[in-house]
Amino acid sequence: MANEMKLEEAILASWRTNNQVNVYLFENLPGELWPLKVPGAPRRTVQMIAGHIHNCRCMWIKMLNKEFNIKVPGSVNRHKVTKEELIPALMQSSEGIIKLIELNLTSKVKKIPNFHAGNVVDFVAYFIAHEAHHRGQICMLARQLGHRLPKKVAVGIWEWTKRRKEWSR
Question: What does the similarity note say (predicted)?
Fold first, then answer.
């Protein structure tokens, strides 16, 4: 079939789409949510959860980068990062993850060094699950804090076909 992708292309497309879902959420997240404190964890904010997504990627790129020569993006200050600063940072850390994926896909070594799950498919699944967890946290917090997300946003994070078209333009 003409629409079928090779496994390698599908893995990269899934990662890129996941990143675009994050970007879409943060671009459309009502600004008043950004500084709100997490109930039961008052030292954490929505802003800090969002920054954690980027910083976690940076940590893994740095840790897995010992065998590859990929530029490690700078972390963001989770306490001060703005949405306008986070989105380009997410694009940079996404590119770092893409390079790790590509290097692993083209390498004869099919185990990712220093990664407990092993292969590249598990690696991508781990990251997508981790980031989806935090997107879910943010959506739940919005509701709990009395700032229900606009329907466009709540539905939009599930429209992976639309998000895929956004990054592939």
Answer: Belongs to the DinB family.
Cβ neighbours around 87 below 10 Å, total: 16
Count of residues making up the chain:
169
Question: Is 146 contained in some domain?
Answer: yes
Query: In which domain, by residue range, is 114 found?
Result: 7-168
Q: pTM of this prediction?
A: 0.91
The gap from C-alpha 76 to its chain's centroid, in whole angstroms, comes to 14
Query: Which two tokens mark 101?
Result: 């994926």
Q: What is the pLDDT of residues 102-125, one digit of tens each?
A: 888 877 656 666 677 677 888 899
Backbone angles phi, psi at 37, to 5 degrees: -80, 145
Phi, psi of 66 (to 5 degrees): -55, -30
Residue 81 included in any domain: yes
